[in-house]
Amino acid sequence: MLKLFERLIEASRSRGVRFVLHFVKCRGKVGVDREIKALDEEGRPAPWSRVFPGVTPQNILQQCVLKKVEVYRGSELLGEYGSIDEALSVIR
Fold it and tell me: Is residue 92 part of a domain?
């Protein structure tokens, strides 16, 4: 699972985009904007332990079901995708 995050971070740095991962039955989100961040319900950065108690960043993709991946450049939404691989393939 860390390989997927590494690919997201690399794409974020090289393409100047930001990813927001939404999960089923999880209120928090994961943001990838040159680094991995936990985001609260409103999309603001928050401590990982508060947003995802008991879940480590490397296990989030195993323990929570991914609902969608949003890709942004600045504040502009470039697209919504059903998987990380799909989002990565479109922006390359």
Answer: no
Within-domain flag for 62: yes
**3-state secondary structure at position 78:** strand
Q: What is the pLDDT of residue 47?
A: 96
* pTM (2 d.p.): 0.93
Number of folded domains that form the chain: 1
Q: Tens of pLDDT along 65-80?
A: 999 999 999 999 999 9
Write out the residue range of the structural domain in which residue 38 sits: 2-87
DSSP assignment string, 14-76: HHT-EEEEEEET-S-EEEESSSEEEE-TTS-B--HHHHSTT--GGGHHHHSEEEEEEEEETTE
